[in-house]
Amino acid sequence: MSAEVTLVPAAATDVGLLANLIELYVHDLSETFQIAPGEDGRFGYERLPLYFSEPARRLPFLIRSGGRIAGFTFVTRGSPMSDDPDVLDVAEFFVLRGYRRFGIGRSAAFLLWNRLPGSWVVRVSEGNRAGVPFWDAIIREHTNGAYTAAQRPGSPHPWRVFTFKS
Questions:
Q1: What are the Cα distances from residue 99, in Å, to 1, 61, 72, 145, 158?
Q2: What is the pLDDT of residue 1?
Q3: At 2, is the pLDDT very low, low, confident or very high (cuts 50, 70, 90)?
Q4: Fewer CB atoms < 10 Å away: N or C end of the chain?
């Protein structure tokens, strides 16, 4: 799969699409975290409306491959892992299963970091067995090894916290 990857700012009209993608994302996360769907069978994401009501602090993006939806990422200005209110945090990052292992996530992350230069934090649960090596490899590549990685307490697993400048 060698289609062009694009990162498109999500608009308020994309809320329904994002809500659908979030269900798939949180379902994937339920393998790592103790997350169960509500009585309606949906996981939901309470913070989704904030990405459209707090545009200076929360930035939602759609990931597309060959023009087709391939995932999304949410960025926040400020991170629970930093005292710097301007640090950029990859709050959520999701690539649909059919688009994984083709470099789409890597391309989307590079597009994100190039689009928003600055100090970054990426937090990954140590329980996310595929996520930790993915982020370690692409951050190392993007920064030519100029990053730090630390372990922080978390539940049910500790967090790997990457910090770097783009």
A1: 8, 16, 12, 26, 28
A2: 58
A3: low
A4: N
Output helix, strand, coil percentages for the chain, rounded to the nearest 5: 30, 30, 40
Would you state the structure tokens that stand for residue 109, as one six-digit string?
């992350």
**CA within 13 Å, CB half, 149:** 16
Instruction: Write down the residue that tokens 């709050």 correspond to.
Output: 91
Compute the radius of gyration of the chain from its Cα atoms.
15
CA distance 91 to 64: 19
* Amino acid letter, 63: I
How far lies 31's CA from each of 24, 97, 100, 126, in Å?
A: 12, 14, 17, 12
CA atoms within 13 A on the CB side of 105: 21
According to DSSP, the residues that pair with 62 across neighbouring strands are 8, 72
Distances in whole angstroms, Cα of residue 165 to Cα of each of 4, 21, 76, 142:
25, 29, 15, 10
